[in-house]
Amino acid sequence: MSSNSRRIISVAVIFTAICLPVGEPSLAASEQQFVESTRAGLAALDNNNFAEAEKQLKAAMETAKLSKSPKYGEYTKSLINLGLLYEKKKESSQAEGYFLEAEKNYKEAFGEKSLEAAVGNQYLGNLYRKTGRYATAIKHYEKTKEVREVAAPNHPDLADTLAGLAECKAKTSARDESIPLMQKVISIRETAFGKNSGRVIKSRLMLASLYEQLGKPKLAAPAYQTVIDLGGPTEAKSGVAFERLAAIHDSAGRVDKADQCYKLALKARELHPGSGGADLNNCVKLYSTFLKGTNKADAAKQLEARFAKKPVK
Residue 201: which H helix or E strand, with range? Predict the structure, then answer.
């Protein structure tokens, strides 16, 4: 096994348990403080308590900065955690600064084509993708892909990279390249997690969406149906799939099939209304618009009245 393969780092929030050294009480105390501050910061971040998360994660960074540990160790982990905090707060410029420094530290310590540097590039790719800087995101994902394909060609971390890359390429002139990338993502995730896992179903939903974006409804429709078959007709992602199938049938003049899909989408959305009922309300709006467009204004009015009487909280 190569040295790279032995150093695979999962692209998740970086937090590693630390074995405290014997006979160095001051260093041990410093490392314990880093552990405690990081744990508290990540717990606060999970609960969207940004002020506490910032306080604790910055304390961890300062502890790491003053410790004897190498720069690429606890200090760089703290940079990534702070980057994730600011990304979640949608303060992208601050997140970018932390991720760039982390990537630089890993590259200097392990080399540009190391798995550690690939982790830094993955975080940067994710940030740029979420903020719509697709061309820049692609450059970072490509660097990560180059490393991970060699070190662990069937690892879920590679699937994460390919999924981000596919989403970005779908937004550029290279959109045709997004399909084989997402197909590879599905293959890796099915092997790792099973075909009925949430991550696989999410990937299949993305593949169906890509087919639709590329103007291939004949491929999109069965892909959406696969999402429904795997997840079941009342799951949240099936609600999305039914809505998109309804739109495809409507565009093709298959009004009865579109109506049936909207009804099924509504059932799924009632069970999974989304935050503040946003997903259910959107489904009602889509279905109502469809009904009005097929000269069923009375049915649309009844639909709207039904949900107006029972607002989702």
Answer: helix 198-213
